Amino acid sequence: MEQTFAIAALWFGLALVATALSARLAVSGALLEIVVGAAAGALATRFVGPDALGAKLPWVTFVSSTGAVLLTFLAGAELDPGTLRARWREVLSVGLVSFAAPFLGCAAIARFVLDWSWPASWLAGIALSTTSMAVVYAVMLETGLNKTAFGKGILGACFVTDLGTVIALGLLFAPFSWRTGVFVVACVGAFVLLPAVTPRLVNHYANRTAAFRTKWVLFILFGLGALALWAGSEAVLPAYIAGMLLSKDLAQDHQFIRRLRTLTIGFLSPFYFLRAGSLVSVPALVAAPLVFLALFGAKVGTKIFGLVPLVGVFRSRRDERWYYTLLMSTGLTFGTISALFGLTHGIVTQEQYSHLVAVVIGSAVIPTVIAGAF
Q1: 13-24 per-position pLDDT tens digit
Q2: What SS3 state is found at 140?
Q3: Which of 199, 217, 304, 299 has its CA nearest to residue 257?
Q4: Do residues 109 and 298 lie in contact, with contact meaning Cβ atoms separated by under 8 Å?
Q5: In the structure, how many helices (H) and strands (E) does the chain have?
C-alpha cells in the first residue's frame, strides 16, 4: 500500500510543478501537465528504469481514464441542445471536415512519404484526425468561453470530429459484432430515459442525501463506460452524450457543477494529462525527428487548409476564424486512445506509436498556445 501512496504523491508533486509553471508562463495547466509528464517520463526511464512512474499500473490507468470521462461529460454538460440545433450546419460541416481532411492527408503522408504499411497508415490517419475535447474544454474553462455560443459551437464540432474517429476506428480495425448492437441499443435506451428519470430522482433525493447528484452521474458514466469497453468502443463517447442530455437539469445547480469541476480538475484530470505525456518515448523521437515533423505538419496543415475557408463562412472576424481552427487542430484523448489501440493490437510498432503520441501531444500544446494570441 505504501507504494500506491508514494506513486500518488509523486504524481501530485508533478501536477503541482505543472500548476506553478502554468501560473508563471500563463499557459494552460492541462498543457503543462502533458509537458511535465513527458519530461518526468524521460528522466525516470533514463535514470531509474522503464515504468518507474507507474503509468501502466491498473489503478493509475483507471484514475486517468476516469478523468478523461468526467472532462468529456462536463464538456457535454456545457452544451445547450437549443444552441446546437440553431447552428447545426456550422457544427456538422466543421466537424466533418475537421475529421476527413487530416484522416486522408495524414494517412497519405504515412503511406507514401514515410513508407508505413497500409494498416499503420490508416491508423495514423485516425489518430491524427482527432480533436481533443479534454484540452479544448480545459482551455475554455480558463478563458470563460465555455459559457458563450462561440465556445459551445467549437465543443459541438469537436464532438462530431471525434465521433468520426470512433466510427472509422470501428469500421477499419474493430469489426462490428453483436456486442456492438447491444451497446447501441442500451445507449439509446439510456439516453431516452435519462432526461426523464434524472429530474425526478434529483428532486426526490438531492436535498435528503449527501452528494446524490455526484453518485448518480458517476453511476451512469461508469455503467455506460463499462458497456462501451465491453463492446470494443471507448468510455468517453457515451459520457459526452450523457452530459449533453443532462445539461439542462445540471445547469440549474451551479454549485454542483463547480464541485464536480473541482473533483475533476483537482484530482482526476492531472493523472490523465501527466500519463499521456509520460507514455512518449523520447529516444524514438530523437532518433527520427523528421518523422515527427512530417506527421505534425500533415495534421496541422490539413486542419488549417480544410477549416480556415469553411470557418470563414460562419465567422467573419479573423481572430475568431484562427482561434476556432487552431483549437480544432488540437488532439489528445481519442488520438492517444487510437494510437494505443494500434500498439496493443500490433498494427503499429513501438516507434510508430511514440511518433503518433508525440504528434498528438504536440498538437495539444502548440496550436493551443498559438490560439491564445488570437
Answers
A1: 999 998 898 888
A2: helix
A3: 217
A4: yes
A5: 19, 0
The pLDDT tens digits of the residues spanning 150-166 come to 888 888 888 889 878 87
Name the residue among 225, 335, 336 with its Cα closest to residue 275: 336
Element containing residue 129 per DSSP (H, E): none
Of 168, 145, 165, 166, residue with least CA distance to 155:
145
**35: three-class secondary structure by DSSP:** helix
> What pLDDT does 22 receive?
80
Amino acid type, 45: T
Q: Which three cell numbers stand for residue 248?
A: 439542462
In this prediction, residue 47 carries a pLDDT of 83
Q: How confident is the model at residue 369 (pLDDT cuts 50, 70, 90)?
A: confident
Average pLDDT, the chain: 83
pLDDT tens per residue, range 231-251 = 877 777 788 788 888 877 776
| 131 neighbors 161 (Cβ within 8 angstroms) | yes
| Residue 81 and residue 104 in contact, taking contact as beta carbons nearer than 8 Å | no
- Band of pLDDT at residue 115, cut at 50, 70 and 90: very high
Between CA 99 and CA 328 the distance in angstroms is: 10
Q: Per residue in 180-206, is it b (16+ CB within 10 Å) or e — as a string?
A: eeebeebbeebeeebeeebeeebeeeb
Q: Which uninterrupted H or E stretch holds 147?
A: none
Question: Rounded CA gap, 345 and 343, in Å?
Answer: 5
Q: How far is CA 333 from the centre of its chain?
A: 3
Strand, coil or helix: 208? coil
User: Is 363 in contact with 329 (CB distance < 8 Å)?
Assistant: yes
Which residues, including other chains, have CB under 8 Å from residue 191's CB and lie 6 or more apart?
A: 241, 242, 245
At residue 210, the pLDDT reads: 60
Nearest to 162 by CA among 184, 134, 130, 187: 130
Cα dihedral 196→200→206→211 (10° resolution):
-30
